[in-house]
C-alpha cells in the first residue's frame, strides 16, 4: 500500500501523514530514490573562477549519480533564468556526455539542486537532510498525484476557462502544431510572503529556494511547450521577498491557497509603486505553511499578460515537502494560468473532502478516464464513493494533448506578450496515418504512428484520446461505474475510455494493453482505464511526437478518427483451450466473424510461442474473413505457451484483432531456445560500409519465457538462508535487519530498460529486496519495499514499489514472508513497466546462435553474423534479429522464416529486434564543395577545423568502426592527444545532417 495522503483545501492540496496502524503502510519519513555522496567543492571552485568574466559560464562539467547507482558526466552552461548573475546562485542548462539526457541544475552556495530528463522520465536531485554532502535522486513522478486536489468555485476562473474551452471546440483540434522552432519567454514575478522568507531564516536562503524551484519548472515547460520563464529583477534583488508577515501585501490562509489573495497583493504593489503591472508578464505567490507534516496547496487561473488576472496564482507548502511534489504542484497551477483546465472525468472526492472532484470537473476538457494521469489530472484523487484512480503510474510529468491545445490557444489569442526567439531546433513531424478508420465494437485494435525529426533527437510518442465527456458522461468510468446519465463509459457514445500512454521505444499502441487481451480481458478492470467500447460511436485518437530537444521542446500532433461500428466483435473460437498439437501438422483455426467482413474481408493468422508477447510467425496471409482457415503448425520448439492471433489489417497504421484465450501446447523435438537482444538502440541508421552498421551484439544465453506475474510458493525446499536488507528511515545506507533468515531467492532480467512497479495483493505480507547481481550484500542493494523503523526489528512495508531496471543486467530478488503468509502458502507478485521479466537458463547443447538481417522489402534473410556486424550490407532497410538454430548458417540465407520452418529447420527467433537502415555514403564531391579544412593531418594533439558550414557536434571512430568519442563543437579544435597512434574516422555533423567524414591520422 502506498503512503496515505489526506487533503486540506482546494487546488492541488497535499498532506502526507505518518498514519501507520499496522505494518502494511510506508512511513512518511521514508522517501523513494537512491542516495549518494557529492563533493561540490571542485565544481563550485571552477564556477567561481568563471564568474569573474561577465559572459555566460560555459562548458562546466559535473559527475552525478543516476537512479540506478551509475555515474554520468554532464556538460553545463549558464542559462537565462535570471537576467543579472546573482552573487551566490548560478543556474545551468546541460546535457549528459552521451547526449541521452537533459539537465537543469542550480548551484546555491555549496549545494546543488537538479532535474534530469531521461527516456525514463524526470529525476530530481536534492540535498538529503541527514548528512552534509549527501544527496538523493528519485523519479519526480514517484509521489506526484497522490490524492491530488485542485477544485475552485470562483466564478471568474470558470468563465475564463470555459471561454477558452469553447473557443477550442470550434477550432481544428491540432491547431498550433507543430512547435519548437522558437522559445517563448515570459517575464515572471515571483513574490514571497513574510512566512516564506522567515521560514528560510533570511532573504538569501529564500531566494535560493525560489530560484532552484523555478529552474526545475523551466525544465518541464521548456521540454513540453517551448515556454521559458525569466525571473524579473525585483524578484532576484529581493524586493518581492517580504520579510514581515504583518506588513507584506498578502493575506495568508494556511488552510486555503487563494489565487484571489495573490492577485490582490500584486494589485497593492502596483498601487504603492513596489511593482508596476508593466514590469512583468505573469505573477505567482509562494508561501510556506506551518506544521511538521508534508503538505502543499495551490490555486490559480488565467491569464498572463492581462493586468487584472496575470498574478492569480498562489502555491504554498510545508518545509518537509520533496521538491518534486512542490515543483509539480506549481507546474499544474501555472497550467491553469495558461488556460489548461482539469482533464479528469470523475466525481466524488476523498473521505475528508467528498465533493472536490465533482466541483473541479470541467465540461470542456474532461478527456481522461477516471482521475486521470497527466499533469492537469487528479492522479490518486477521487476515491470516494467509488475508487476512480488509474492503476499504474498516474503521476505522468507531461501534458495531455487536450491541455496542450488549451495552452497553445491561450498563447495565440490571450497571452501574446511573450518574447519569441528562434532556436536551432526543427519540430518533429507526426503522422497518425489515415484520417479515419472503422473498427468493430468490443474488439481489440492497434494504432501505429510515424514520428520523424530532422535532428534525430530522442523522440517520445504519446497516444491520447481527446473525446470530451458530456454532462451525462460526468463520472462514467470503464464498465462498472455509471456517470450522471446512469450508464457506464463503455456504453457511452462520447465518454473517454483510454488513458494517456507514452513510449520512447515504439509508435504503436494496443487498445487495450496486450496483457489484458492475453488474460481474456477484452473488458479490463475498470481502474486500468483501458475499456473497449460496447456501442457504436466515434473516438478521436491523437498521436503526439515530442523531440525532447536539448534546445527547446518541439512537438507535433496528428489525429485519427476511429469509427466504432455495430458489427463485431471479432473473436477467436479455436483454439481457445489448452489443446495439444504436434508441429508440422495442420490446425483448423476458427473465429466468429459477426459481420466484421464488411469492414475488412481478409485476415492474417499469426502464431506466438511465448504466451502472446510476440507473434513472429505468419501461418496465413490474406485469407477470407469467413471464420475458418486451415494452417500448418511450423517446425518450432516445444512450447506450452502457444497463442493464435487473427488480425484484420486495415492499413499500415491500424488493425483490429483477437487472440485465443488460453495458451495451448505444441509438441516438438526441436530444442531451439528463446533469447532477448540487448541492443543500444531500437533503430540504427548507418552509412553503407561504416562501422555504425556493426551492432556488436553479444550471443545471448538461453532465457525462459517472459512474464508479468510470478507465483512464489513459500515451501521449505524453495528457501535458502540469506541476510535481509531493507531501507533505513534514519540513515541513507540499507539496513541489515536480519543476519540470516529463510528467503525465496530468484534471478531475473528485463526485456526493456525503465521504471517497473512491483506489487502483490492484500492481505499478503512479503518483504521483497532487489539486488544487482546474484549476491545478497549492501554493495548490490538496489531497492526494497521494507523500511526499518530505527528500533529493534520493527519495520514497515508497502505492497507496491517502483524500481529502475536495466536491460541486460541480471538481478536477484529475495522474498521474505511475514506472519500473514504461512509456510507452504503462495503469493502472486506482479510487475508492470515498459517490458517484462524473464529468467535465465542454461543454453542447450547442439544449437548455434547468430544474428540475421532480414530485408524488409522481401522478408528474406540476406546476411548473418555472430556479432551482428552488417557493414557489408547494401543500401536498404533491415530487421536484425537473433536466432537459435540447428544446421549451418549458410542454410539460413536467401530464405524467409516461413520457408525455413516449412523445410523443418529447427529455429527460434529472439523476442526483440533492431531496425537497421543503411544509407548511401556522402559523395566526395559533396564534401569538397563544403570547404572543410582539417589541419594538421596527421595530428599530434589538437586538430583545427575550418568550415563554412555550421557544425553542431562531432563523432570519432577507430579503424574497427567503434565510436570513441562524441561531443558538441564548442570551438574550432578537437583534442586528439588522448588517442593512441592510428587511423580514425572523423564525422562532423549539424544535428542529424552529416557535413563531412574524413580520415584523420594520429601521430
Model description:
The model is unreliable at 1-30, 144-149, 151-156, 164-173 and 922-929 (pLDDT under 50). The radius of gyration is 29 Å and the shape is globular. It has 1003 residues and is mostly beta strands. The protein contains twelve helices and 59 strands. Among the domains are: 34-139; 427-565, Sandwich (Immunoglobulin-like), CATH 2.60.40; 571-667, Sandwich (Immunoglobulin-like); 683-702 and 843-919, no CATH class; 709-838, Sandwich (Jelly Rolls), CATH 2.60.120; 924-1002, Immunoglobulins (Immunoglobulin-like), CATH 2.60.40.10. The strands form twelve sheets. An eight-stranded antiparallel β-sheet has the order 2-9-8-7-6-5-4-3.
Briefly characterize the structure:
By secondary structure, this protein is mainly beta.
Entry keywords:
8-stranded mixed β-sheet; Immunoglobulin-like; disordered N terminus; 1003 residues; 8-stranded antiparallel β-sheet; mainly beta; 59 strands; globular
Summarize the SSE layout with pairings.
Layout: E1 14-16, E2 34-37, H1 41-50, E3 60-65, E4 71-78, E5 89-96, E6 102-108, E7 111-118, E8 121-127, E9 134-139, H2 155-169, E10 182-192, H3 194-199, H4 203-225, E11 227-231, H5 233-236, H6 259-272, E12 282-288, E13 294-300, E14 313-317, H7 323-337, E15 344-345, H8 356-360, E16 368-369, H9 401-413, E17 419-422, E18 429-431, E19 436-440, E20 445-448, E21 450-452, E22 460-465, E23 501-503, E24 508-511, H10 514-518, E25 537-546, E26 555-565, E27 571-574, E28 580-582, E29 586-592, E30 602-608, E31 617-624, E32 628-632, E33 639-651, E34 654-659, E35 664-667, E36 683-687, E37 709-713, E38 720-728, E39 735-750, E40 754-759, E41 766-772, E42 781-784, E43 786-788, E44 795-797, E45 800-805, E46 811-817, E47 826-832, E48 837-838, E49 848-855, E50 860-865, E51 876-885, H11 897-902, E52 907-919, H12 924-929, E53 932-935, E54 942-947, E55 953-957, E56 963-968, E57 973-975, E58 982-990, E59 993-1002
Parallel strand pairs: 10-11, 10-12, 12-14, 15-16, 19-26, 28-35, 36-52, 38-43
Antiparallel strand pairs: 1-13, 2-9, 3-4, 4-5, 5-6, 6-7, 7-8, 8-9, 10-17, 13-14, 18-21, 20-24, 20-34, 22-23, 22-25, 25-26, 27-29, 29-32, 30-31, 30-33, 33-34, 33-35, 37-47, 38-39, 39-46, 39-48, 40-45, 40-47, 41-42, 41-46, 43-44, 49-50, 49-51, 51-52, 53-54, 54-57, 55-56, 55-58, 58-59
Helix pairs in contact: 2-9, 4-7
